[in-house]
Amino acid sequence: MLRLTTPSGPLRVLALGAHPDDIEIGCGGTLLRIADRPGTSLRGAILTGSPERAAESAAALPAFCPGAVLESGTLPDGRLPGHWSEVKEYLHDLAGRFEPDLVLCPRVDDAHQDHRLVGRLASTVWRDVLILQYEIPKWDGDLRPPTHYVPLSEDQARRKVDLLNTHYASQLDRDWWDDELFLGLMRLRGVECKSRYAEAFHAAKVTLDL
Question: If one looks up domain 12-202 in CATH, what number appears?
Answer without folding.
Answer: 3.40.50.10320
